[in-house]
Amino acid sequence: MTNIDRTDEAVAIGRRRFLLGAAGLALAAGFGGLSPRAWAQAAAPTGPFTLMKLPYADNALDPVVSANTIGFHYGKHHKGYVDNLNKLVAGTDLADMPLAKVVAATAGNAEKVAVFNNAAQVWNHDFYWASLKPGGGGEPPAELAKLMDAAFGSVAACKEELKKAALGQFGSGWAWLALDGGKLVVTKTGNADTPLTKGMKPLVTIDVWEHAYYLDYQNRRADYVQAVLDKLINWGFAAQNLA
Ligand code: FE
Predict the structure, then answer these.
(1) On the chain, which terminus has fewer CB atoms closer than 10 Å, C or N?
(2) Which DSSP category does 132 fall into?
(3) pTM, two decimal places
(4) How far is the CA of 194 from the centre of ligand 1 (A)?
(5) Domain locations along the chain
(6) Would you write out the chain's pLDDT as a tens digit for each of its 243 residues?
(7) Is 3.30.310.10 the CATH classification of the domain at 42-130?
């Protein structure tokens, strides 16, 4: 099981936390809202956190995202978050939790900011690499297209909203297509923040930290985002996440 297979569990935890509105709520108080099976899964030790294997070769997204960018973005930045996380949780209860549970358990906790930032960045990057694929872009699967029509008027309008979110995010962050209570939404988050902690279910994401595009596009974030939407975005992955 990969880290992002835990999405549902994290969304359930995130929604419960969000609804309770207690930023520093300790999850150690119990998982009363989860089924016994979900609880068993959440409690299953997963060992030290690992850098996911990229689902394609490091030059497979070229020229939209070059092998050079992947070398730094995946090989240095993403790996750095994994390494930092492992150091930060060593010898604590968090070391035995699934990644998404670490994200949920540390969100909003002023004493766990570093753990949250690194855990959320590992989760976000796992999700980002799965959100791209060689030969992506194009038209979404019918089921997703229908939801885009209903929420935004058309597939093109939905893509435009996603682009607007990606360009409108001031500084580092992420643009997301997500389900919020069953409704399709476009949202953006700053730095390591993720819609998971707001009880949303992410469908697809675009990393708009400068490290995602600067080597290939320098300051031209709009060109990077447009190229990702046209040629790399994995709508099949997004549709899969509707289930
Ligand atoms: Fe990144």
Answers:
(1) C
(2) B
(3) 0.84
(4) 13
(5) 3-33, 42-130, 142-240
(6) 566 665 565 555 555 444 433 333 333 333 333 333 333 334 333 447 999 999 999 999 999 999 999 999 999 999 999 999 999 999 999 999 999 999 999 999 999 999 999 999 999 999 999 999 999 999 999 999 999 999 999 999 999 999 999 999 999 999 999 999 989 999 999 999 999 999 999 999 999 999 999 999 999 999 999 999 999 999 999 999 998
(7) no
